[in-house]
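Reviewer 2 asked us to include a model.

Predict the structure of this chain.
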Amino acid sequence: MPSIGHFGNHCGERVDIPPAFALTFPRFSNLSLMRLFRCLVSVGASALLSVAAFASKDKPVIGLSLDTLKEERWQRDRDLFIAEAEKLGASVVVQSANSDDTRQVRDIESLISKGVDVLVVVPHNGAAMSRAMKSAKEAGIPVISYDRLILNSEIAVYLSFDNVKVGELQASWAIKNLPTDRTLRIVRIYGAPTDNNAKMFKQGQDNILDPLIKSGRVQVVAEDWALDWKPENAKKIMNAAIAKVGHEFDAVIVSNDGTAGGAIQALIEEGLAGKKLVTGQDADLAACQRIMRGTQSMTVFKPVAKLATLTAQTAVAIAKGGQPSATTTIDNGAKQVPCVFEEPISVDQSNMMETVVAAGFHPADKLK
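Predicted model (structure tokens):
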């Protein structure tokens, strides 16, 4: 049948108006018909979205926005989260931003447009999510801040680990395992300056180190932030520290295992691997292998299975109209956010089997 006009629908597709449709409304011009038809399509689409959102309460759709999937840690979180959510009858739509704030905002807005019931967000930069959080609030979609705190925005709950304690564990382990008869010379490699957690890890380290620095017991000979948590940036920091002070340092306090790997590569090139204490965090497989081989000294094990499972359970409960439970609150700049913190565990060669292996995080035969 020939058509008398066309326009694009909400999907960007061509819609033709047949003559029979035009004859039904003899008083309308083609332009008026197009406007009327557009309104009808819009109203119909809104009605369908409302029905879909209501119907989804029995089978919630959760949007999971991740900063990155390049690190083993986040691949594990994703898989554990999806498994628990699906066990509870929900489905999960995953987006990864590749450590790009603009892309993550677009990802979140895409999830909002898909009509998800709840958003779970691991922000690349907790301070850069305001626009996306405003869009979520306007759409009536609750947001769970996962592992990293979203700042200056309305969020439902924050679920993470005690990140200040992570830093305290790193620094205290280093001090307890270094000589006591002289001033300790330490290199510090922090995480991404855009990550609020990196600042909390540093705060925890400072809690232990600052009194010792003031007393002269510890001297920080080099320090810097590893952009985007990239191992290659940590390696550059370590190379610069060696160029500055040579081999005259005792330890490298590093905030996670990925950046520890970068620092250790620089130490290997200098023949210093295993001769300098190196900390880490996340109990990545490569890091646990380095610990057992002696090139990395310790890591902080965060039982992500507990956190991912709790977060999936919380997301499904909120989607079904429940309220998040919390053990404390934290100020994110916009409100006192309800939160739950899981406990991290210090791990080295002496307790690897009783912690990481016993929890099923890595099998013993892989730690060789």
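The CA atoms of residues 109 and 223 lie 37 Å apart. The first strand starts at residue 5 and ends at 8. We have added this to the supplementary material.
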